[in-house]
Amino acid sequence: MSTVYLIGAGPGDPGLLTVRAKQLIETCDVVVYDYLANKEFLEYARPDAEIIYVGKKGGDHTLPQDKINELIVEKARSGRSVARLKGGDPFVFGRGGEEAEELVEAGVDFEVVPGITAGVAAPAYAGIPVTHRDHTTSVCFITGHEDPTKEQSGHNWDVYAQSTSTLVFYMGVKNLPMIAEKLIKGGRDPKTPVSLVRWGTRAEQQSFVSTLDSVAAEAERRRFAAPSIIVVGGVCSLHDKLAWFEKRSLLGKGVVVTRAREQASGLVRTLADHGAHVYEFPTIRIQPLDSYEVVENAILRLPMQDWVIFTSVNGVRHFWNQLREIGLDARVFGGLQVAAIGPATADALRERGINPDFVPEKYVAEHVVSGLLERGIAGKKVLIPRAKVAREVLPEELVKAGAEVQVLPVYETMLSQADDAEILQAMDQDKLDYVTFTSSSTVDNFFTLVDADRLREYKAAHPDKAKLACIGPITAQTLQKHGFDADLQPEDYTIPALVNALLGE
Ligand code: SAH
């Protein structure tokens, strides 16, 4: 018999998962999850884990609660560990208590991993502390949607109304007119500040402050729906002063990242940190070569070269894989000069113990050549480990300058079979704000996968949306071949500069 873990997955921001929760998702045999738990967490699961969706959205239950309980018990009895993920905290309006009781009755061991509950986190992300010495000494969590089968209400509206507590309602948007009315009737000041926070802590977060007597109309006007938290009390007056999350420059903006998945994580994280809703759409796939015989020979003959020029992080990575494979290390670069085209490539070298002798100030081949010439590369033997298919400008210019160049493919880039469904849906819902291109092949492949006419149509309908951001002039030229101008292009041809260009909008 194994253990069932009742795990709180937090309110939505993937950073708000506990360390313990992450460890368990990574190790359990079965992951059972709900509608509100962020799906990104499923990526932590073992590739062979069984993943089961039992979510519910409003009244639309995928699996009734008793069936969920049965399922969990059955999995545990078969000897498999179960991570039962729930939105927020499992014991705060999450029916975690009921599931735990069932487990006890079935004789199944369980543990609870508390999570960050939406009733605290959503207000916090909207600049509302649920307690504050100037406003309240207590806070009360209330369901805004009682079990409809219950005969007698468990609410005592007069007590809520007359208490000085901050009132936090879950599942209450539909009943907001009733909630406001009962509180006013019970004696709460109609001018009490009330705030609604929808999709708290996520890129889609929206919030506003109103007063008890007009909040229902305001919520209707703004078309607020579930999932929202309703906060009633003086603390809501701090919203405008303390709101920090909604100030993020890219909050709620849909940004497409077209880089290969292997390379995209840094860019994805930075954009998400600025509030963007990131669509990962890897247009290229980085792939090892079928045979590394040529690379191996080149490594063994390395002492005969004068310079090695790395043009990408992938080049460094795949070159090193081979170096390790044959039992060598950074010492093979002993007498050589090493250049890195771009700061990320330079960092990849430094991580491997090589401090590059030359990193150009601008990161296109033409500028690199002039820098290398100044360092006396003419007449020297140069090795360039890189992708199988790449621009020929750098080797050609170096040859013209009198260098003896050997181009050494160490990996291949292939068209990735990314599914364009999410991108098309984002356009249908007017949610596509930026597309980022970090190389010419991401542009070419993007238009192999996504219909250019659909994008053109979308751009025409939304002049301030679907802005195309290119890392540099070469990428922008490729974009022009497909009939589009780059809307954004940073001064510096780097990923951080590209992000800054988006932020500066
Ligand atoms: N166990 C969960 C609550 C489940 S009840 C927790 O501790 O947070 C579901 C209700 O939670 C929703 O109707 C909504 O009121 C609230 N909720 C959950 N996630 C939310 C979010 N990201 N933003 C606003 N409200 C949220």
Automatic annotation (TrEMBL):
GO terms for biological process: cobalamin biosynthetic process; methylation; siroheme biosynthetic process. This is uroporphyrinogen-III C-methyltransferase. Residues 3-215 form the Tetrapyrrole methylase domain. InterPro entries: 4pyrrol_Mease (IPR000878), 4pyrrol_Methylase_sf (IPR035996), 4pyrrol_syn_uPrphyn_synt_sf (IPR036108), 4pyrrol_synth_uPrphyn_synth (IPR003754), 4pyrrole_Mease_sub1 (IPR014777), 4pyrrole_Mease_sub2 (IPR014776), CobA/CysG_C (IPR006366), Siro_Cobalamin_biosynth (IPR050161). Its EC number is 2.1.1.107. One of its GO terms (molecular function) is uroporphyrinogen-III synthase activity. It is an enzyme of class 2 (transferase). Keywords: Cobalamin biosynthesis, Methyltransferase, Porphyrin biosynthesis, S-adenosyl-L-methionine, Transferase. Belongs to the precorrin methyltransferase family. Pathway: Cofactor biosynthesis; adenosylcobalamin biosynthesis; precorrin-2 from uroporphyrinogen III: step 1/1; Porphyrin-containing compound metabolism; siroheme biosynthesis; precorrin-2 from uroporphyrinogen III: step 1/1. Residues 267-499 form the Tetrapyrrole biosynthesis uroporphyrinogen III synthase domain.
